[in-house]
Fold these 3 entries.
Entry 1:
Amino acid sequence: MMLAPFSWIRPEPWGIHVVPADCWIDPARAVDRALVTHGHADHARGGHGQTFATPETLAIMELRYQTREGAVPVAYGETVDLPGDVKATYVPAGHVLGSAQILLEHAGERVVVTGDYKRRPDPTCPPFEVTPCDVFITEATFGLPVFTHPPIAQEMAKLLDRLAAYPDACVQVGAYALGKAQRVIAELRAAGHVDPIYLHGALEKMCRLYQDFGVELGELRLVADHDKDDMRGAIVLCPPSALNDRWSRRLPDPITAMASGWMRVRQRARQRNVELPLVISDHADWGELTRTIEEVGAQENWITHGREEALLRWCQLYQKRARALALVGYEDEDD
């Protein structure tokens, strides 16, 4: 009996179910067999029987969620044979260290699940690779035309200019612990900032993990090991939750900054009392989302994880078949 096209892959509330292989992509609850795109908490979790992911993502999951049993490393470009005559190939997504798109092949059909991705260069991870397919499952975190991310060099210049203007203070940058903090550090180094960068303790282990995988971050120091005067004229990185916390009192006259794609929305910056919004995102912006759909050239586009309605409407206007998925367990990161 002939199966309907793409009937072997089903979006369910808890994740994307690959039916012949009885496995799930980024499931929001524990399953026997999970294929994980990257280590952020809304895509990765512990408790699975088997977890297929890149070595970097598995290391991140072990650090964050104490997962080790059942780990199956899959390198970029490697193809894994799954039950039910399904093949899975991991392709760089350009989001964070270890992030991958997953190309699924079955019955002559190709499906790409992107997880989260970005198209801008990033010194901390391999770039996104366009992978032709029949069904393209794309995120839509910044799926509104208002979201156009500026060049990161421009945002680094804003940060360094503010630092130079207030040599007796420090600039305290809120940055997500996985991916954003390490990218900001690496981009500062690329911009010529060679001075030590100070870290909140919550960022230390993830930065060390990045360094273990060969990502150069330069000299990093823990805030807890130093006095206020040591940090004058310095950049201090912390989780966004620490920006207005008592912890900040140990810093010398901190100028509050935050690195996030959401800093494009002025109200978000005001809500967090951010003096220096830095529009730095690890997701594709509106123009990159639509360009990627064009370049992939899929028969169908499935849209999830974000502002699905606007991207769905864009697909309709340009005669591209599309549908919005209703997955649970996904939430905005402090991107």
Entry 2:
Amino acid sequence: MLDWDDLRFFLALARHGTLSAAAKVLHVSQSTVGRRLTSLEATLAVRLLNRTPDGYVPTLAGVAVREKAEQLEAAALALERDVSGRDARLRGLVRVTCAETMAAQILAPSFARLHASYPDVMVELIPNPRELSLSMREADISVRLKQPEQHDLVLRRIGGIAFGLYATADYLADHGAMDFGDGCSGHRLITQLDDTQEMTQSAWLTELASRATVVLQTSSHEAAVLAAANGGGLACLARFRADAEPRLTRISVRVAPPSADVLLLVHKDNRDTPRIRVVLTHITECIRALGPMLQPEDASEQDARAMAVRS
């Protein structure tokens, strides 16, 4: 008889292509993933995945098994959501995914208040620059800065985040005045990778400084903050984080970088589950209370830490 767990491991490997990536998603060792694949192939007496230099690739049989396994998975997840949605107890695990800086600087500090009111609700905070699947139960709640590609989600805008252009005073002294008309030739840029949430702000920066050299790309906003704070170059950063970094100077520009909406996402089947509902409410109240810090008034552009440059 087929073991559903073997199919689950097979799906993870087929989707992610490597033992290490599948193991990370499943929170197990690479050897466990390999062992489960071997078990499934032995049960079915057919090879399902071929190992190539680019990762594991499904065979013809593997393609057919993946299609059937995904149908079983969808049915199992729908059943799980239906049953968990009827759980009236204010206790249990709630998985929350968001970007790294938001997890460390905003949500994690706030959860002490949540736990004081709901001691039996455990939060698993998952910092991830990429979108985890709520439909596949990789997380229960997502706090994101861009519109999701997933379906069957309930989305609410709960706030906004302002961005600014930053560098250190030493960097600006070493590299001279920034001539935006000349595309900031001779300057260095720190930007986000293509599939991360701050891509809109990175696109603004690379257009503004079109002749500058990109010297670092990262999926981590915190890494970009620290790289800029250590003189690595110009970076478009969330003001709530970068304004608190004493080594950084915010640079005035004629056209401010685009802000980002803070979006709260939950699967439609889970939104009324009590333990998930209390976490949704807590996050909403937290973000709204921090509104003036996350999205300062325009007048604060004139504060003492801003440094006017030629634009």
Entry 3:
Amino acid sequence: MSLISTTDPNFDRMERRLNQVFDHFFTDLGLTRRGGGQQQDQTRISPAVDIYEDDKAWHVHTELPGVKKEDIKLETQGNNVVISGEFNRNKEHNDNNVRYQERRYGAFQRTIPLPDNVEKNNIKANFNNGVLEVCLPKSVEASPKKITIS
């Protein structure tokens, strides 16, 4: 298998054009994507999340592979919960030797708007196997109540 050298000027032009296409796509979605290739250390990464709801709480699961628990910052800001930190590059690899790279490195941040019925003082979080689980409990008055029809 032959890999394309990243010093090839045609590859550089193709990479710039692909970055323009992706930048346009992500901007249309209201997201930002900057960087590519060697500049990825300056990228603000938005990690993938799944959000679930049950009768008692909202559950946010965020993928953070390779991040240590102590390197994750979780806080409420206004009506949002903000997850931030940094994906660190493996020190064993030299940038000059990279031939192909899909993994992203650098600062990450994800802002999740809080529903009005969340008890901000009772938010709990657990980090296991690269997945941050945040439990956003619903307030008691927001719980569904059965109403008897007379």
